Every structure is written in C-alpha cells, then in structure tokens.
Amino acid sequence: QVQLVESGGGLVQAGSSLRLSCAVSGLTFSSRVMGWFRQAPGKQREFVALISGSEGNTYYGDSVKGRFTISRDNAKNTVYLQMKNLKPEDTAVYYCASKRDGRLDYDYWGQGTQVTVSS
Q1: How far apart are CA 46 and CA 62, in angstroms?
Q2: What does the pLDDT look like over 27-45, one tens digit per residue?
Q3: Nearest by Cα to 117 from 80, 96, 87
Q4: To 10 degrees, the CA torsion angle through 75, 48, 111, 117?
Q5: Residues 70-82: tens digit of each pLDDT
Q6: Beta strand pairing status for 46-51 and 32-39?
Q7: Residue 63: is its pLDDT beyond 80?
Q8: Which of 41, 103, 110, 111 could covalently link to 4 via disulfide, CB atoms 3.0 to 4.6 Å apart?
C-alpha cells in the first residue's frame, strides 16, 4: 500500500521558517520524482517544487524561488521542503506528491499539512 504522509505544518509569524517532511512507503522511492504543491482557500492548486529521483535536480515555482528548498533522503524515503522568510501569502495546505520520471501526472498524493503564516 502506497502512503505519503506529510508533517511539519503549523502556525508561524511572517519571516519565520518551517520544514515540511513527507514520508513515503510502498514505492521505489529513489526512482520517483517528488513534488510539493499547495492550495490556499478559494485558489487553484499551485506547484511549489520538485526534485528528481536519481540526480536530485530541483525546480521551483516562481513565488517560492530563493526562499524554499526541496531535498530528499533516499535512505529514509523522505522528501523535505525547507521554507524560509515565510509570508502570509504562503498560507495554504501543502501536499507532497510522487510520479514516475518522464510522466506529466503525479499518481500518488499525501493528505496535506496546513501552513498558516500570520502577519
């Protein structure tokens, strides 16, 4: 059974940092592309970041470049999202997701973790 379990969300003040984690089971983690997405109330889901499986190449959404860092630990089957200098507009439910390399669509998703940034 495939599971993606996010953790690390919370309520923080603007300018603070948080690190989200996503623990994965039931997949060959090291070969999978891992992504982070977020969705704020009343808004469409937004791409945040992704990291490739084998080479660890990273890509970021424009709104988080320079503030967020995605990383992975293949030994722990875990992907991280380090978020710095958080802004109120970063408030959203954050989801991790997984896809096969070369595919467009993510086929597995976590349940999400809430991040709330107060001004």
Answers
A1: 10
A2: 999 999 999 999 999 999 9
A3: 87
A4: 110
A5: 999 999 999 999 9
A6: antiparallel
A7: yes
A8: 110
